[in-house]
Design brief:
The protein is mostly helical. About 60% of the residues lie in helices and about 0% in strands. It starts with 6 loop residues before the first helix and ends with a helix.
Length: about 120
């Protein structure tokens, strides 16, 4: 890699985004159901998206999806697969990852993916 962005910086950024999203999620939940927020804090953060009482709050879905993305990225990091496109396994650039640490696809695959989603919405 010819870039000046180091792996260490990328890891810091990924962990910061994970922390930020989890914190934001807890704050939102606290306003909806403080007891549930307290219960959730007893669980490891990577189990939050699967915690079934949360399904009582459909408005939390977008934030839960964001947490899942973060968990997936952290998992890839541990496996040494971080920064690979999930469709074609091309290496994402450090610049792309710094901008969006949870990015899963390279540009061409992202475009294909968005197009596919767009088509299914029209059906
Ligand atoms: Zn790709």
């Amino acid at each position: 890699m010819s870039s000046k962005i180091t792996e260490c910086e990328l890891e810091q950024r990924l962990l910061a985004v994970a922390e930020e999203r989890r914190h934001g999620f807890l704050q939102t939940l606290q306003q909806l159901d403080a007891a549930l927020a307290t219960a959730l804090q007893q669980l490891p953060a990577d189990e939050w998206p699967d915690y079934s009482p949360l399904s009582a709050w459909p408005q939390l879905q977008p934030q839960l999806n964001a947490l899942k993305q973060v968990d997936a990225a952290l998992c890839q990091w541990r496996l040494g697969l971080y920064g690979l496109c999930s469709d074609c396994e091309a290496e994402l650039t450090p610049e792309q990852l710094l901008q969006d640490p949870c990015r899963q696809r390279c540009d061409p695959c992202e475009q294909k993916h968005n197009k596919a989603q767009h088509v299914s919405w029209q059906l």
